[in-house]
Structures are given as C-alpha cells and as structure tokens.
Design goal:
This protein is α/β, with parallel strands linked by helices. It has two domains: 83 residues; 294 residues, TIM Barrel, CATH 3.20.20.70. Helix content is 39%, strand content 15%. It is built from 16 helices and 16 strands. α4 packs parallel to α5. The protein is globular. 41% of the residues are buried. Bound molecules: iron/sulfur cluster (2 copies). The site of one iron/sulfur cluster (SF4) has 16 residues, from α13 and α15.
Amino acid sequence: MTTLLEHRYRAGEMHRFLAAEADFVYLPRAGAIFALDAATADVLGRLRDAPVAHGDLAAALTDDGMSQADAEGLLRELRLVGLIEADHVVSPVALVDSPPADFPLQALVLNVTNQCNLACTYCYEFGADKISTQTGKPKYMTPETARAAVDFLLDSAKGRDAVHVTFFGGETLMNFKLLRDVVAYADAKAAESGRRVTYSLTTNATLLTDPIIDFLAGHAVGVTVSIDGPEEMQDARRVYKSGKGSYAVILPRLKALIARHKTRAITARVTLSAGVTDVVAIYHHLKHDIGFHEIGFAPVTTTEDGHDFGLNGDGMRGVLNGFHALADEWLDHALRGQMHGFSNVSETLSELVVGTNKSHPCGAGLGLLGVSPSGDLSPCHRFTDADEHVLGHVGSGVDQDRRADFLARGHVGAKYECTSCWARPLCAGGCHHEAFVRYGDTGHANLHYCDWIREWTDRVLAIYGTLAVRNPQFLERFADRKGLS
Ligand code: SF4
Ligand code: SF4
C-alpha cells in the first residue's frame, strides 16, 4: 500500500485553451470550463511530461510561498474536479449516463407532406434509406393522423408543462391547411390539462402568402427558411423541377415575412455544398439585404455515390475559414454588448454556458421523434418514411425495443473514437442520419469531420473565455436558448 505522499499524479483529461491572455481548461468529463490560476497552471505544467509524486508537487507549491495546508487543499481540489488524477488508478472512461428509459417526449416533428414543389439537388428526401420505400407511402398527412400525433405527444409528455411541434416536409406549406388545423386542435387539447404547445416550421418560402404569414405571426410559429444565399448561390441547387431557380420567387415573400412576422425570430438555414461556400457573403446578404434575424450553416459532408455536391477537404477548409471570419465579427459585437446573427456560434456557446455533456448527439429518439405522413414514428425528421428506422406509430406508440436499440448504438460510449475525444460533450459522435448515410450505421461516429468539429469547438471555447474575462454579463444571455437539431 502507498501513502498519500508517495502517490504520483498525472494530468487528467482536459483541453487547454488561451483567451484574452488568460489560461482556461475544458474538462470533457464534466463539460465544464475553468480559468486556471497561476498555482494550478504550475501544477499542470509539472505534469506535462511525466507523473510527479504528491510530496514533490506539494513541496514545489510551498517553495513558491504557499502554506502546507493551502498546498494540500489545492491538490485535493484538483483531484476532485479531475484536473489531476492518481497515476496508479486506471480511470474508467467517464461517460455520461443515458437519460432514463421513460424520458418523457418533448417535441414531435410532423412531416405534413413528403411532397415538394422544388427539386433541390441535394435533398435528403431522396436519400438511400428512402428511395426504395417511398412508393406507396401517403403523400400528405391526414387530419386524423395529425390529431393522433398530438394526442400521442401530450400523453407521452406527462410531467412537462409545454411541448413543441415542428412542421416539416417535403415543402411544409403544401399542407398548410393541416398545419392550421393542428394548431387549433393542439392548443385546445393542451389547455384541457393546463399545458402549452409551441410551434415552429421549416419552409422553402415559395408558397408564403400574407394570410399564411399573419397566421404564423398570430400563433408565434417560429419560421426557419431553407435558403442558400444570393441569387446565383440560391439558384445553383434550389431549383424547380424545370431547373428554374427559386430566388426571384422567394425574395418578395421573405421581405413580407420579415416585415409582418414579429413574434418570433426569423431564421435562415443555409446548406453549404460544392461551389456554395462563401459563408461571409451569404451571411451578409441574408442578414443585411434580406433582414433575417439569425443565420445558421450546415455543410454537406456526405453524399451518395454519383453525386458531386458534397464538400471535399478544401471545401470544408474554406467553410471553416469563413466561420472564423464570422466568429471574429460575432465576438466584436458581443464585446460591445450586441447580438450577431451567426447562430453557429450562438448555439455552441449556449451549450457551453449550460455545461452540456451529451450522452447522444441530439434529441432524436429521446425527447424528439419524427412522424411521417402515414403516422410512423422515427428518430427524427430525417428518418421519416424510411422503413428500417421506424420506431412505432402514433396510434400504437413507441416500439421500445427498437428505440432502445437505436439509443444504445447512438450512445457516445458505444463509439470507440469518441470516448477519448475532448469534444465529445458537445459532439457525441455527430448526426445519426449522416452516420447512416455515410457508414450504413446510425451508431457510427462521424469520423470524417472530427478535425473540423474540434477546431470549431476550440474556437467557440476561446470566444467563451474572452467573454468570461471581458464581458461576463453577455454570457448570461445564453443560459436559456434552446434549439431543435
Ligand atoms: S465524432 Fe469525432 S469529434 Fe465527434 S466526439 Fe467523436 S471523435 Fe470527437
Ligand atoms: S442531428 Fe441528425 S439525427 Fe439528430 S435530429 Fe438532427 S438530423 Fe436528426
């Protein structure tokens, strides 16, 4: 048996970063960020190359003027938070537990139709997991199915005061009548038990009219518009079946949407694909020429054989450079106390502020389920109408065995590479659907963009650190933000 004085320590699992000339550390086991004081930085510096005995560390601290009691107290504290750990102990891989099996549902994504009036060349509606199965599926959700979905949501969300319904497509507004009926039904049904429903939708904006906009504003329906940027970029891939671009059609409708809908932020969701990567130009067009409140970007990193719109290494590097430029702008705004609309920073920062430490990359299959027009349940909207991912039906409920299998495979602890990755509290292996398309397994880590994810997470950590030093009040704004995938 060794005494405490003979214990040797090594540095615990951490990611160190500098911000505003201060030294910070991110602890993946806790999803926590600490500013390092000089004494802690000194201890970690001594452990950089090899383990050091407890007595030697304590002696070094007392040589630097610390009392013996303070030195022992500091080493105890560092052990407790995991910044240092005993060298003779094999630490189990510390991973977050899954939420309980009866985790109550919080949100449904209703695919009110799988039909679309556009034929965007990268649309996942025609992904490999669906192409063979869509024939014969209902094209539009019926009112009966939609009501059953609302009943299922409210029944499954026991204990929650509010639930959320997102409308999705295809093109969502091709079934606007159903959307209107669902809002009326869900509001009334939730009120019976003193609860509340919030709403959002995703649309390509081609079918927006003033009455539709007024309905959405009147019911505080959050609107996300799928749009790729200025005319030449939008019309590169967001086209009608004839090949004609959609920019000229949507522009006046977007102006009307932003002018009339004041009850929720209006968000643009940009798909970055080969040739459409100038994120700075896209951001400024959508923010300043059109007037969106927030703009988020999603790169296409995976495509099926025969498609050429996915981003290669150079494309992804270019996107990341653009992200850094927008992150500079974001931070300049934040230091002046102003919000910038680049939501890729805001969303990651919110997760850091609340100490997110994920068991799974997203809410799919946990608090969130997708519903296909037929009423089939799936992990999220991207899996709807894909038979092999069905997790039940709104009429009969969740198939708990299939759900448990999906969640077990998608748990961060089941992804070998992720278990030693410092970015896992936020990434947890990345999108299940993307993993399926790329690797044929929803539980596979998305290893093709790890470097990208780590560089971007490191950048947002630096923004966090800079604000923690220079404008800590601004960080508090991010404690309440919530997002859906
Ligand atoms: S997918 Fe890559 S970046 Fe994400 S947690 Fe796993 S190893 Fe880390
Ligand atoms: S990250 Fe992927 S799996 Fe998760 S909700 Fe979004 S699309 Fe679905």
